[in-house]
Recover the amino acids of this structure.
């Protein structure tokens, strides 16, 4: 890497140290708590409970992470994070889909074809307006409910206007008067949302 690139990185990180959180990986420890928009979930790490590597189950408010390693007290790494994100996406997809359907009806916005929760590195949501599909970042499961709702409303708005035109923002101002507050919350806290 050139010296100028290193200086730019150092300068950027010194001004915005929270950017490093984008690359941090969550550590899952036995007894930890994951707070989602609708509940607190206790993490249990079951050592030696899985013979096929890593597996997860979420029942009620307990996330059981089972590992084939006998003396593990905490888990981390990209593989663990991806497994947890996929599990949360599967578990929460119906609930978030219902929430989005209710918001579309309540806010008198168009309905969508399909919603999926997925990991996104640089977006909170996206909309394929031609197909009518919404994608919501799994990290938003860790945000307050009104922030999650604001992103959903934003993406539903793209079913009316596919761009970020004046008409789009006028619609969003009407349907979600506090969207700026929620957007600022994400700018301030978004890098801390780690699954």
């Amino acid at each position: 890497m050139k010296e100028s690139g290193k200086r730019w990185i150092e300068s950027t990180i010194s001004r915005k140290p929270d950017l490093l959180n984008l690359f941090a990986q969550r550590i899952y420890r036995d007894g930890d708590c994951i707070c989602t928009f609708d509940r607190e979930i206790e993490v249990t790490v079951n050592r030696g409970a899985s013979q096929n590597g890593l597996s997860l189950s979420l029942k009620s408010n307990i996330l059981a992470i089972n590992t084939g390693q006998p003396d593990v007290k905490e888990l981390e790494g990209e593989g663990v994070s991806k497994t947890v994100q996929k599990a949360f996406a599967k578990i929460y997809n119906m609930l978030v889909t219902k929430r989005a359907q209710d918001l579309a009806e309540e806010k008198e916005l168009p309905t969508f074809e399909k919603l999926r929760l997925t990991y996104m590195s640089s977006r909170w949501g996206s909309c394929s307006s031609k197909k009518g599909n919404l994608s919501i970042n799994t990290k938003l499961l860790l945000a307050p409910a009104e922030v999650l709702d604001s992103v959903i409303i934003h993406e539903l708005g793209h079913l009316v206007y596919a761009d970020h035109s004046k008409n789009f923002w006028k619609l969003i101002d009407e349907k979600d008067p506090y969207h700026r507050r929620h957007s600022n919350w994400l700018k301030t806290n978004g890098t801390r949302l780690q699954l």
About this structure: Helices lie at 3-15, 78-106, 145-157, 166-175, 179-189. The chain has five helices and nine strands. The CA atoms of residues 44 and 64 lie 5 Å apart. Strands lie at 28-29, 33-35, 40-47, 55-59, 62-67, 74-75, 114-118, 125-128, 133-137.
